[in-house]
Amino acid sequence: MEQIQKNPPHYTIRSVDHALRIAAMLQLEGELTVSEIARRLGVARSTAHRLLAMLVYRDFAVKDDQHRYRAGPVVELAAHSPSHAARLRSAGLPHLHRLVDLLGESANLAVRTGDTIRFIAGVESPRALRVGNREGMVFPVHRTTAGMLLLAALPPDEAERVCSADSSADHPDERPDPARLRAELARVRRDRFAVNHGRSERGVVALGIPVRDHDGTFAAGMSVSMPSVRYDRRCLPKLVSTLRDVAQDLEEELATGP
Q: What CATH class is the domain 2-75?
C-alpha cells in the first residue's frame, strides 16, 4: 500500500532522491547541463556533477562531447529532440508558478501513460505545511485527480478497460469498482473538474482541471494540492475558477502548435 499512497520514507536519503529526480528529468526532457540540473535541484554545481558521474557509471545517464547529459540505456532514452512531455512541462511551468502565487498551494501537471499517471512538473507551496514536489512520480491512473480527468475524456468502456488492466494493483480488490468508477467519471464529465480527497495520499486534497493540447485532445491534468486541514469546501468555486483561468492561458499557448 505504501507504493500506491506514495508516502515518503521515514529516513529520506537526499542524494538518492536527487539522483532519481535527475533520471526522471533526463528521461522526460532529453539533454540537460550540470548547471541546469543544479538549479532545478537547488544544489551546488559540484553536487550535481557528482550525482551525474554516478548515474553515468551505472548507465542511467550519458555525457556527450558538449558536456551535456541525456538519459542512458537503463532508462531507455529514445529521442534526439525534446519529447511531448518536455514541451508540456516547459509550457506549463510558468503557469504552475502563477497558480502557486495566486492560491498559495502546490501545483502540478501530469500526463497519462496507459494505466498510470506521471507527474511531469511541480511547484511547491511556500508554506511550511505543504504537499511536496511530485515531479517524476507515477501513480495508478484512477487514484489521482489528473488521472480521473483524463479517464473522463475517454469513452466509458475504454476508461473501464484502462482501470481493469491496472498493473500497479497488487490485488484485485485494489482496482476500482466499475459502478463507482462510472459514477465518478460521469460527475467529472459534468463538472469539468475533479476533487481527490485522500485517494492518492492520506491527508491531502487535490483539485484539478483538464488541459487541451494544440490538436484539441486532452493532454494533461493541472491540479493544486493542499493538506486536508487547510481545505475549505466553501472555497471550491474560487479554486475552480482560478484553475480554469490558468489552464485556459496554457491551452492558448499550446494552441500555437508543437
A: mainly alpha
* pLDDT of 82: 53
pLDDT tens-digit map of 100-145: 999 999 999 999 988 888 899 999 999 999 998 888 788 889 889 9
CA contacts within 13 A on the Cβ side of 129:
8
The DSSP-derived string for 66-94 is TSEEEE-GGGT---SS--HHHHHHHHHHH
84-254 is classed CATH 3.50.30.60: no
Cβ atoms 108, 119 nearer than 8 A: yes
Give the whole-number percent of the chain exceeding pLDDT 70: 87
- CATH 1.10.10.10 boundaries in the chain: 2-75
8 A C-beta contact, residue 179 and residue 166:
no
CA distance 21 to 13: 13
Sheet containing 116-123: which strands, arranged edge to edge?
138-140, 116-123, 106-113, 218-227, 204-212, 194-197
Residue 9 — pLDDT band, cuts 50, 70, 90?
low
